[in-house]
């Protein structure tokens, strides 16, 4: 692997400054290439969040830092996809782990397997990221027990870890970066929206730079829909986006009972399913309502299900069942 210079305009788009960024390049066949995310050509970046991530990674790869980066935002706002798309354009491999309440430090550091009657110790995802100079992405850190995360303090501070099982000292190679995502910033959740999240130790939280990743603005999402669905009518696309924002605002409000949100990924799925099910109109069903069920609404609480369809009816001007729809 070699560190190289990439043009930001060439990698991220002509609308960005013509500056040079540190990136990575691997020889063909290098196993690390399996961990480099694929570029999504339709992805659009939030400039502030992109700047935060780029600044952090450039510092990590140009001398190192004892700090980590935390991305905070609501469910479905694109925290993980932001890291993947930045690293995809910089050629950087990403080691992903999703946090949960039963996650323990040894699981991140090593595992043991039986081979031909003997026991072999394998590097865990964090150890592998340190040793191979990869971006380590720990998602949903506010679901992890606080005493577990406190055990990572020395890793963040000194960029190294001692493997208890065999006594090895593993130091971070150039390219290593520690990034975490969460909904609550480790401060707990009083709204009830994020069940299972926990208040994290202040010493652990203090080791992170913070960046907010919220839902995209309306213009950005419209641009995405128009790129993915070139034949979509402008006013129709606006209605899809308006419903998405109604759902998100109700979810973030916390007092409406809305127990789901509508991510950009779900928005795209909804538009795609609406087009694919246009034939439902001939059966007296609204394709946009029919598709919403399959994109999001099925499985929600009765109150949320009704509220979702009311929002669609409000914006599209058509109910779930129709007689002679002009749209739908």
Could you characterize what this model shows?
There is one protein chain. The protein has 328 residues and is of the alpha/beta class. The chain has 2 domains: 2-212, Rossmann fold; 218-316. It is 40% helix and 17% strand. The protein has 13 helices and 11 strands. It has helices at residues 8-12, 47-61, 79-90, 105-109, 125-132, 146-150, 153-158, 202-205, 218-228, 234-253, 264-276, 287-297, 302-316; strands at residues 2-7, 20-25, 68-72, 94-98, 110-115, 118-123, 135-139, 160-162, 169-171, 177-182, 208-212. The strands form 4 sheets. The chain has a 5-stranded parallel β-sheet with strand order 4-7-10-3-11, sandwiched between helices. Strands 1-2 form a two-stranded antiparallel ribbon. Helix 10 packs antiparallel against helix 13 (302-316), helix 11 (264-276) runs antiparallel to helix 12 and helix 12 runs antiparallel to helix 13 (302-316). The chain is globular, with a radius of gyration of 23 Å. The termini are far apart.
State the main characteristics:
two-stranded antiparallel ribbon; 328 residues; globular; 13 helices; alpha/beta
